Amino acid sequence: MTGDTEHVDPDTFRAESRESWGQVAAGWEIRREQLQRAALPVSRRMVELIRPEPGQTVLELAAGPGDTGLMAAELIAPGGTLILSDVAESMVEVARRRAEELGIANVDFRVLDLEWIDLPTATVDGALCRWGYMLVADPATALRETRRVLRPGGRVALAVWDSPEHNPWLAIGGPELVRRGLADPPEPGEPGPFALADPQELEELMRGAGFGELSIEALDFEMRYADAEHWWDTTLDCARSFSATVRGLEPSQRDDVRAALADQLAEYAGQDGSLAVPARTWVALAAA
Q1: How does pLDDT run across 140-173, given as a tens digit for each residue?
Q2: In the chain, N or C terminus with fewer CB closer than 10 Å?
Q3: Buried (b) or exposed (e) across 75-88, using 16+ Cβ within 10 A?
Q4: What is the C-alpha R_g of the chain?
């Protein structure tokens, strides 16, 4: 992955991405507690890596519900500001409600695009982006923009998903739709959950953006669901392309897909039917 969009019209992709993330914002708000409970080790590690201190400015990009950045916001008080941003305004509103719920006031909410961060150069002490860079049309540009807004020595911590075989909770839906002729297979180089799964390619992108002091580590955790039906409902609420395809199917097709995926998930079921499905992410740290 070199950041080119040979197989993707970038402007069309960006417009569709912004719209589709807005459409699933309500689902992310509904599932926020469940998803953050599973992903808490990732958020904690990312915040730990940027070493937030009182008085600093921290930027969270592609924040979604904002849980990672809000953890940092408490550590940069007093005197510090979290700039919490997402490309979808409705996602920013989800994060705003979460901050109000927690009573966290030192937050500046912004609608920002990873590829064009509307902030002055060298004004941010730390940046966080959990599972965002692999979803943009041009991750190389997004990383350069992140480095631009960081002060010299400022740190970025980011997470991207490892390969599909390490993330069956996320990886089984799309291939099942493709196998049934209900969706097209992804094009090489197309943005998506696993577009930056190769740590060597991620390192090359980050070094190409001008980052130094780079480290990349794997972090394993589990995604937990009450049962296969719970996995299905959560995925429909939060997975943009899978949800859009499934909701357009005939009821009989939808039922067949659901049953096939439940069969695939059975190997992760406990005696009570609950699922503990493996997940693995890369967490990268670098300095500007």
Answers
A1: 999 999 999 999 999 999 999 999 999 999 999 9
A2: N
A3: bbbeebbbbbbbbb
A4: 19
- Under CATH, which number does the domain 10-225+278-287 receive? 3.40.50.150
228: tokens are 């296969």
Is the distance from CB of 161 to CB of 33 less than 8 angstroms? no
Specify the DSSP class assigned to residue 113.
Answer: B
Tens of pLDDT, residue by residue over 175-213, are 999 999 999 998 888 899 999 999 999 999 999 999 999
Write down the residue that tokens 């392309």 correspond to. Answer: 241
> Is the pLDDT reported for residue 1 higher than 70?
no
Q: What is the pTM of this model?
A: 0.93
**CA-based nearest residue to 239, from 227, 231, 249:** 231
DSSP labels for 191-244? -STTTT--HHHHHHHHHHTT-EEEEEEEEEEEEEESSHHHHHHHHHHH-HHHHH
Q: What is the dihedral of CA 169, 175, 181, 182, to 10 degrees?
A: 30
User: Could you give the CA distance from residue 74 to residue 72 in angstroms, rounded to a whole number?
Assistant: 5
Give the integer Cα–Cα distance in Å for 48 and 171.
28
- Cα(7)–Cα(5) distance, integer angstroms: 5
pLDDT value at 74 more than 80:
yes
Query: Does position 246 have pLDDT exceeding 60, yes or no?
Result: yes
